[in-house]
Amino acid sequence: MAKRKKKKSIRWWAVILLMVAFAMAVLFSYRWFLDNRMQAFARNGVIRIRPNTTIEELEQQIQQNLSPLHEASIRRVFGKENVALGLRPGSYTIDTTYSAHRFARAITRGWEEPVNLVLSGRIRSVEDVADRISSQMMVDKEHMLSALKDSLLLAGYGFTPSRVFEMIIPDTYQMYWSASVENILDRMKKEYDAYWTEERISAAAKQGLTPSQVSILASIIAEESHYKDEYPKIASVYLTRLRSGMKLQACPTVCYIYDYKINRVLNRHLATKSPYNTYMYAGLPPTPICVPDKDHLDAVLHPDSTPYRYFCADSQLNGRNVFSVSLSEHNKKAALYHTALEKYLKNKELKEQAEEENTMNEIADET
Hints:
The chain is mainly alpha-helical.
């Protein structure tokens, strides 16, 4: 009788152990499936990790950008993969197909996807360049700026700090967000070399220019007009002046001397002694005055064939330019522009005065 009870007890314990083992196996399998196969996030997003990013900052990004579905699973996987000590700097595009395990692997093994580095628009200083790059990439602005002013570093690319604008060909570059300063400069030089083909170098030579001189003239055109159809006409005017020995007399070069802080070029500005003052000195200024884009460069390489020697702002104050063959014709158009501008500025001043008086009257009424 005792033996039967003992056997029955053993069988019960065996069943219990089997059930526990089965339950553990189910739990282990579920956790494995949850960690390795199940969707971990409710929405797509981007996670950016810097060298000093902490695990707490990462968790905050996950909450804000990805909306985690199984936080316990993510914490468990982070512990197994030792994520806190293995974070790799980079920009990671995470979608809803990612499991917790795949996500942990991505950010600890550096599975970055390229991002778009967009260099476009008005770039007038190396500070502008550094700011534009650092706002889109991991690199620090001051580090980037230091590199753009580093003579020894830039010499390795065939440029100097004063000529670095020539190396920048505005475009959209696909690069890893964690790219170093050197990686970024390498890419700039690669795009520069890709642009300056034998065909374009030959086109420059036909205009009597080197690639460097093309960049300088293109930078002036970039500051003269915002209308693409005008670029080849303006290039024609300046190339004609260069060939005939005329001074360029380009207002943007004078604005450059004053760091673009003057709204109107006056006679006192024209008297400034500087190699960039094209009213005082013939020929091109020493370096580009901004970063020209491909349309400006192409306009110099393929200018319109025109008889024009002069141009000035349109008296309609529409931002466009009007072109002239003779100086007398030009002077008439310039006089019309200045009259229209003075009238506009006078009306603007009167309007501002009226608005200020109205404001003062309203304050007086309230008191």
